[in-house]
Amino acid sequence: MIDQLVSWWLRRLGGQACFQIYGKSRREADWRIIYIYANRRRNSESRWPLWGGTCTTWASDVVAVGWDFAEQVLREQSAEPASRERPVEVAGGRLGDSARRLEIGAPSFPTYSEILAHECGHTAQPLSLGGLYLPVVGAVTLFREGPHWWNHFENQASAQGQFGGIVNGSVCAELMQRLA
């Protein structure tokens, strides 16, 4: 209930999404449509503390990214599109574990699509945590992945998230202009 209210409010406040994606966690049977909102404050060169270069899941269907990130996801998906039949997952189940990634033959750095898959893992968390999602997960998300109890939500997001591609016809005109 609280997640639905937060989602509705954020989508209303955010205006038009830059695009929509299919996403879910491995535990979910059905794909959900997730709205991706871009903001220049989240661009990698932003001087806003704790915002520059970040992707943040605010609710079960709202993720905020920078325009530069959205552009790179679109470029990757143009070259090698994900689908619900062939979703993108985080290689080795961890974004930040280079050794684990190299061990399975993946590049040491995650792709933009893998980062979005990680965020898809986070979108499942508000469904089970409800109103506790933002204060609980938000309080420990800066600690990233790792071996400690406070890394649980980040580890879970990387291990469970699946990005099933961009919804056809959902890319906004502003993002298309940036690619031209």
Topology:
Layout: H1 2-14, E1 19-25, E2 32-38, E3 56-59, E4 62-65, H2 67-79, H3 98-103, H4 112-129, H5 133-140, H6 152-160, E5 161-166, H7 173-179
Parallel strand pairs: 2-4
Antiparallel strand pairs: 1-2, 1-5, 3-4
Helix pairs in contact: 4-6
Account of the 3D structure:
The chain is α+β, with helices and mostly antiparallel strands and 180 residues long. The chain has one domain (2-179). It is 41% helix and 16% strand. Strands 3-4-2-1-5 form a five-stranded mixed β-sheet. Helix 4 (112-129) packs across helix 6 (152-160). The longest helix has 18 residues, at 112-129. The chain is globular, with a radius of gyration of 15 Å. It starts with a helix and ends with a helix. The mean pLDDT is 94.
Question: Which descriptors would you attach to this protein?
Answer:
five-stranded mixed sheet, single chain, 5 strands, 7 helices, 41% helix, 180 residues, alpha+beta
Biggest pleated sheet: 5 strands, mixed
Oligomer: single chain
The total count of helices amounts to: 7
**pLDDT < 50 runs, ≥5 residues:** none
Describe what is shown at a glance.
The chain is of the alpha+beta class and 180 residues long. It has helices spanning 2-14, 67-79, 98-103, 112-129, 133-140, 152-160, 173-179; strands spanning 19-25, 32-38, 56-59, 62-65, 161-166.
